[in-house]
Amino acid sequence: MALNFPNRSRSYDPVSKRVRFTGYDGLFQVPFLVEIDALSEATATPDSVENAYLAAFDAARTSIQAAAMKAYAHGRKAIYVLTAADIR
């Protein structure tokens, strides 16, 4: 089966400074993380860090998901971390 993204949920992890989202290959969940540096549109103030990063993720969702599909096609991993180099 191919990787797809039927669930649009995502969350910000302030400890690792990454946005988490999940892809699915059939019934299997495939976890992804996007480094904040990859979200170039994010301009966060201390009061709105999470919202700014999630909005930047949403704005780049198509590119991020394309990068996730490409990373997934190169081999199976427990978790995938996408960087700015992967998305651009």
Task: For the structure shown, list the relevant keywords.
88 residues, Double Stranded RNA Binding Domain, 3 helices, 32% helix, globular, DUF1488 domain-containing protein, DUF1488
Give a topology summary.
Blueprint: E1 3-4, E2 10-13, E3 18-25, E4 28-35, H1 49-59, H2 61-73, E5 80-82, H3 84-87
Protein name: DUF1488 domain-containing protein
Pfam families: DUF1488
Organism: Phyllobacterium zundukense
Give a quick precis of the structure.
This is DUF1488 domain-containing protein. The protein has 88 residues and is of the alpha+beta class.
Describe the structure.
The protein has 88 residues and is an alpha+beta fold. It has one domain (3-87): Shew3726-like (Double Stranded RNA Binding Domain), CATH 3.30.160. It is built from three helices and five strands; from the N terminus they run E-E-E-E-H-H-E-H. Strands 1, 2, 3, 4 and 5 form a five-stranded mixed beta sheet that branches. A hairpin with a 4-residue loop joins strand 2 (10-13) and strand 3 (18-25). It is globular and about 40 Å long. It starts with a strand and ends with a helix. The model has no long low-confidence stretch (mean pLDDT 90).
